[in-house]
Amino acid sequence: MSDGGDSSGSPPPEGEGGGDAAYWRQFERDYYALLGVTRSASADEIRARFLSLSREFHPDRHPRRHGNAALVAAANSQYAVLDRAYKVLFDPVKRRVYDIYGEKGVHALEQDAAVQQHAVGMHLKAPDEVQRYVEARLRRLNQQALEAQFSSFSEMSMHVDASDFVREPMQGLRSLFRSGARFVEQSEMTIHQRTAFPLSRSTTLTLGGYMYDKHGLGMGSFTAQLAHTSFDPSVPSFTLMSELGWNPKLHCQISQPVSPHTVFMLIPELDDNGLDISVGANQLLTPQLHGAMMWSTRDGLSASISQDAGTHHATAAVAVNGGGPNVSLQFRRGLMAATAAKLSLRASLVSGLSLVAGVSREVSNRTRLALGVLLAKTGVTLRLGFTRGSVRFVMPIFLSPFSAQTAFSTFCAATSPFVVAAVVTQLVKPAQERKRRRELEHRHDARVQYLATARQGALEQQKLMRRSAKEKMELEQQREDGKGLLVLLARYGKNPTSSDSRELRGGSDELDAALQAMREQDMGREDGEDGETGSGDSISQQEADAALLEQKWVDVTVPLQFFVNVRGSASYRTATVLWLSCFDCDVLLQDGALSLSSASKAGLLGFYNPCIGEDQTIADARASTVKPLLYVRYAYDGHVFEATFDDDQVVNLPSRYAQVMGPLGSVY
Q1: HSE-up (13 A, CA, CB side) for residue 217
Q2: What's the domain range around 124?
Q3: Are 345 and 331 within 8 A, CB to CB?
Q4: I need a labelling partner for 634 at 20 to 30 A (CA). Which of 128, 359, 461, 545 fits?
Q5: How far, in Å, CA of 61 to CA of 39, rounded?
């Protein structure tokens, strides 16, 4: 999961899938390793461990540090990291969310003040309820992050009548190059525009308007909406909307939760036709099943039930109003990571039976294309859709009415979306390749940033640990039985037995190789455009990045000596009966010993993973073929020993697996 550094890597792009989420989570901090506790540690163990570490990392604990500005700055920086880890793990709700979603889930939890009341009150008592809440909050944050880049929201719908062109295509083509009758014409157009202004954390003002044109007759309205979301379950939320123009309207919606799964709504609306009052309720039947019912003085009774199972979404609705009963069924399923299919069936006494089939594809993180066919009593309509960020464009194209003479046209209209989809796929491939290149560059930058911040944090932590480590080494040397444990040398990373900490990257990994190939491919296009401006800064930055990537191991002698339990040290005197929570099982602290658990060592204080790669995760080092190793050279009982441990191996010093190098004094 993480280093013990001061900062995690770059945040993941929004909308990442499950596999990408696991990749980005490797750059987060591991709070358990940072405090030196196991994931099953109790709250008392977490608190005791935090207080023990605070004696070394708190800026006010040692007055002698005030003369060293660098040491004070390191203490201010690193104590904040420890304090953050303690507050998350000590809180049972935050800890539960952190175990599932990591830091991002905790941030989502903290940004919604209502969750604190939900957690301690009548709401969200069960763990699965907390999990569902956080998942919904994360989806909402992703959507808000996307919408934050676009302050305005636009939608345009243009209806086109191409029935004459489909009936006589040759004459239609000739009419394009001469004046006269048109075989393709715009029948109606609607433009919506709105802009949201957040007034506070819970209140948003939205101003907008729309224009409508049909066969040369235009109309429009100005709209204003004030929405307030209450974070207190006992206080209702409301939305007030007014519409001024062709059809004046005043609309208000009040919603009040009455239980963790039920929300009642009251919707009064005033327009030219008088007052309409609607009442309804939304009910969460199961974690995936949602039901709603609404009764209106004007529109009658309606009810719906929907199921969201992640990969597919199904909705069934029925309504009874002045036009008679009508039923609608809708099913949407994700075919691949970026492609979804939709099927909708509607039936009513007025409009008859209609069927909609379509497919949509996400061509980039903010762009989606959609194609669909509408088969209704009026005829066949081809629907084209395009969405980019907060801008949406829809074009329904009426092709032909239903008749025996237009059977072939109907068949062509029904199959045209699949033909167009195949053509679009070929056009989209270059854009997807550019997207892949940007993603590789983003991952490369995140990797470099992680290594830079993790290394800085580890070195600052080692500065703060040096005083205590030196004290413990002196106490071990003064032991009367001569069995003091002295850590002479310790390295963590790739090939730690090598004396050279840097590695020539002649055999770059797949990520770096792909980036290099793409950059060389772009050099031909960019040659001569930028000249030599800024080339010196670029080369310097590339050299700094290369130095970080070439660092294959980090010296961890000070942290390991700091972790040694020594009788007489300050930490030992206050933790004589403290159970060592670093183990998967409880082991009593022993004098002159060092014990590390079977978890990855990358998250320990003073450690970081210098050989983290494209597919490697700190939480599970088995996910990569390049795993960091821990090499330790220590003195015990008058002899020098050395041992190499896997990243996920239990470390106990003195170790019976260590090899003797020679007597102390002749080997260093």
Answers
A1: 3
A2: 18-142+433-525+536-663
A3: no
A4: 461
A5: 28
What is the number of H-type helices and E-type strands within the chain? Answer: 14, 26
Of residues 496, 339, 497, the one with CA closest to residue 428: 339
* Neighbour-count burial for 594-616, b at 16+ CB within 10 Å, e otherwise: bbbbebbbbbbbbbbbbbbbbeb
pLDDT digits (tens, 9 = 90+) for 326-349: 899 999 888 776 788 888 988 887
First to last CA, the chain: 34
Q: At 315, which amino acid appears?
A: T
Buried b (16+ CB within 10 A) or exposed e, 263-276: bbbebebeeeeeee
pLDDT at 579 > cutoff 50: no
E-strand stretches of 262-366: 262-271, 274-284, 289-296, 300-308, 312-321, 324-334, 339-348, 352-362
Q: How far apart are CA 112 and CA 303, in angstroms?
A: 31
Residue 551's nearest CA partner among 610, 490, 613 is 610
Q: Are 185 and 160 in contact (CB under 8 A)?
A: yes
List the structure tokens of 96.
């539960």
Asked if the structure places residue 39 within a domain, the reply is yes
Do the beta carbons of residue 39 and residue 99 sit within 8 Å? yes
Say how far apart CA 433 and CA 442 lie, in whole Å: 14
Q: Is residue 521 part of a domain?
A: yes
CA distance 645 to 650: 8
Can you give the pTM of this predicted structure? 0.49
**Selection from 130, 64, 139 nearest residue 93 by Cα:** 130
Q: What is the mean pLDDT of residues 549-565?
A: 84
What's the average model confidence in pLDDT over 28-33? 78
With 90 as the cut, is the pLDDT of residue 101 above it?
no
> What letter represents residue 219's amino acid?
M
Q: Which residues of 527-541 are buried (b: 16+ CB within 10 A; e: fewer)?
A: eeeeeeeeeeeeeee
Instruction: Indicate the burial class of 556 (C-beta count within 10 angstroms; 0-12, 13-18, 19 or more).
Output: buried
What is the rounded CA–CA span in Å between residue 625 and residue 378?
Answer: 62
Per the structure block, which two tokens stand in for 515? Answer: 């980036």
575 pLDDT tier (thresholds 50, 70, 90) = very low
Question: Which H or E run includes 415?
Answer: helix 407-477
Name the domain count of the chain.
Answer: 1
Q: Which residues contact 609 (CB under 8 A, 6 or more apart)?
A: 3, 454, 492, 493, 600, 602, 616, 618, 628
Bridge-based pairing of strands 587-588 and 379-388 is unpaired
Query: Is residue 471 assigned to a domain?
Result: yes
Q: Identity (one letter) of the amino acid at 61?
A: R
Q: Report yes or no: 613 and 602 within 8 Å, Cβ to Cβ.
A: no
493 belongs to a structural domain:
yes
| CA-wise closest residue to 299 among 264, 281, 273 | 273
> What does residue 591 show for φ and ψ, rounded to 5 degrees?
-70, 135
Q: Tokens 């809708």 appear where?
A: 330
Beta bridge partners of 204: 198, 227
